[in-house]
Amino acid sequence: MSDVTVLVADLVKRFGTFTAVDHVSFDARRGEVLGFLGPNGAGKSTIIRILCGLLQPTAGRVEVAGLDVARDPEAVRARIGYMSQRFSLYDDLTAVENLRFFGGLYGVPAGELARRIAWATEMAGLTGRERELVRTLAGGWKQRLALGCAVLHRPPILFLDEPTSGVDPLSRRQFWELIHGMAADGVTVFVSTHYMDEAEYCNRLALIDRGRIVAAGTPAELKRGPLGGTLLLVECAPLDAALAALEHAPEVLEAAVFGDALHVMVPAVVDALDEIPRRLAASGVSCTRVAPIRPSLEDVFVHLVGDPS
């Protein structure tokens, strides 16, 4: 029996003359966390909504849990969990009332509902606060509660569209612990995110830009991929003047601000180690360090897609 739970082949989605998804192909397997990484408008949410049976594809083959999404979207929706990037719970209901509502919506058997609600309440960290209105809860609790609502019916495939947007770092880490726990139980998890540290938590990543997958693989594979040169860390000040001095220098392929330094891609590291400090000094920029470094996932993203900000 195949472990493939999602199969996408040559997927296209057009809205009028605009192509939102442009011949995308990939698959996902049981127990895998697959991340979609890309700028706003890249097509991530459109792909997820098609996989969830919420949008019809224009062309291509899309199978989820062995079902053709275009032919039987209702059956697909019964076998998945979906958490949208917009908060989906009801603020004027309590936590337990939301859980009961979604349990009924997903058809959780009456004999199972109480146990599943108790599990979701504990997972969300809301034991003892089940009867508080959702609008009074902190963002991290709300997101974990929304996840509990999405998986009450034990779906084998889970779609999370930017699930931790606006959530504090500790709550994000706790949320990811829950995701990995579900994957360990065999659930296939799709996650779209803008956070580079979250992308590192995925088993595989698809980098999406303008409706196309521009790179795919494990985080380690993507960081080993060819960037067309050697990456240098350049510690200097002021950064804006340094960037202006290096952006169009002949010995520089790419330059971008990373925190309080520059990451600079060069074709020949030996020449650049001498030339970059000289060029910066000529522009009135103080340079304290130039050294080769290993590319991060953000470096790969910027190289392939552009500035994530």
Kindly provide the radius of gyration, computed on alpha-carbon positions and rounded to a whole number of angstroms: 23 Å
DSSP strand tally: 14
Q: Name the helicity range.
A: 25-40%
Provide the number of structural domains.
2
User: Strand portion, in percent?
Assistant: 25-35%
Quick one: CATH class of the largest domain? Alpha Beta
Fourth-tier CATH superfamily name of the largest domain: P-loop containing nucleotide triphosphate hydrolases
Largest sheet: 6 strands, mixed
Mean pLDDT: 90
Side by side, the strands of the main sheet go 6-7-8-3-9-10
CATH topology of the largest domain: Rossmann fold
Total count of helical runs of at least 4 residues = 11
How far do the termini sit from each other? 43 Å
CATH architecture of the largest domain: 3-Layer(aba) Sandwich
Q: Quickly give the structural class.
A: alpha/beta
The gross shape turns out to be elongated
Q: Which residues form runs of ≥5 with pLDDT under 50?
A: none
Q: H/E series, N to C? A: EEEHEEHEHHHEHEHEEHEHEEHEH
Structure write-up:
With 309 residues, the chain is α/β, with parallel strands linked by helices. The protein folds into two domains: 4-223, P-loop containing nucleotide triphosphate hydrolases (Rossmann fold, 3-Layer(aba) Sandwich); 225-304, Alpha-Beta Plaits. 35% of the residues lie in helices and 29% in strands. The chain has eleven helices and 14 strands. A six-stranded mixed beta sheet has the order 6-7-8-3-9-10, with helices on both faces. It has a four-stranded antiparallel beta sheet with strand order 2-1-4-5. Strands 12-13-11-14 form a four-stranded antiparallel beta sheet, sandwiched between helices. β12 (254-258) and β13 (261-266) form a beta hairpin. α3 (95-105) crosses α4 (110-123), α3 (95-105) packs parallel to α5 and α4 (110-123) packs antiparallel against α5. The mean pLDDT is 90.
